[in-house]
Amino acid sequence: MTLKSALDRARPIAEQPLNHTGVDRKSVGKLVREFYAKVRSDERLGPIFAREITGDWEPHFEKMTEFWCSVILKSGDYHGRPVPAHLKLKDVTEADFDIWLALFRQTAAELFVPETAAVFVDRAERIATSLKLAMFFRLAPAMTVGGE
Ligand code: HEM
């Protein structure tokens, strides 16, 4: 057993790369494109994205494909910073994340077998939780290190 396979085995199921399930850059690219087609026609999320992405959507699709390949296949292709990209979106609410996740769940279920879709959804939910923490919650002063 290689060190890599030993580490992969030690990870919880949802953390393991889906390298042997037919998920590849092509199918991830399809997921991304179909997901954002739903997002763009959603009455609440559509206008939020339309304000931010005013030109060609292709660079966003490519970036998001790299992001999901890094998350799911551990490809290491994505080098962006999701938190600042979302902190600047002032009109987004916690409820918008529920819409985002529902559309993502629906798209994953349309394209992948249930076990694979569940891994995508699990990761999306966890990342959504960290983005929400960064966007909507501030530590009370007494809880920060040094407590100003
Ligand atoms: C209501 C929820 C959300 C909204 C409205 C939203 C909106 C956006 C917008 C407008 C951008 C910038 C697009 C661009 O200029 O390229 C962006 C980037 C991005 N979003 Fe979201 N997003 C949401 C939730 C999520 C979630 C749950 C994830 C991950 C599971 C995610 C992952 C990303 C990533 C990786 C980027 C690229 C950041 C970068 O490297 O620049 N987003 N999002």
Please trace the helix and strand order, writing H or E for each element.
Answer: HHHHHHH
DSSP helix count?
7
Q: How many domains in all?
A: 1
Main CATH class: Mainly Alpha
Task: Give the % helix.
Answer: 55-70%
Gross CATH architecture? Orthogonal Bundle
Spans of at least 5 consecutive residues with low confidence: none
Structural class: mainly alpha
**Beta-strand content:** under 5%
Organism: Mesorhizobium onobrychidis
Protein name: Group III truncated hemoglobin
Summarize the helices and strands and which ones pair or pack.
Blueprint: H1 3-10, H2 25-41, H3 45-52, H4 58-73, H5 82-87, H6 94-111, H7 114-136
The structure holds protoporphyrin IX containing FE.
Could you walk me through the main structural features you see in this protein, from its secondary elements to its overall organization?
The chain has 148 residues and is mostly helical. The protein has one domain (21-137): Orthogonal Bundle (Globin-like). It has seven helices and no strands. Helix 2 (25-41) crosses helix 4. The site of protoporphyrin IX containing FE has 22 residues, from helix 3, helix 4, helix 5, helix 6 and helix 7.
